[in-house]
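pinned: reference chain
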Amino acid sequence: MKGFWIYILRCSDGSYYTGHSDDLEHRMAQHVSGEITGCYTFKLRPVELLFSQECTSREEALAAERKIKGWRRQKKEALINGSWAEIAHLSCSRHPGNDKA
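pinned: its structure tokens
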């Protein structure tokens, strides 16, 4: 069975890029080299891999990517840090500006 990955990169400007791939090592090499000129990360190199997680299917990886892309920076940082309690807190928070996921 082929694995799929979701990942979060930190770009040179401090922004985060979330993506998914069926070959994380190859995709990272593409981000680092700038092989894909139309990619968000092309002009924001160097990039650093901060988080990755294996998924069971492409559909699961794509759904996770879309969900994470909708999160605020604070929630992405909680995921990067493995702070599940903070993710839960931010998910339940009803403060203005917090996402609902």
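why pinned: The two ends are 30 Å apart (CA to CA). The first helix runs from residue 24 to 33.
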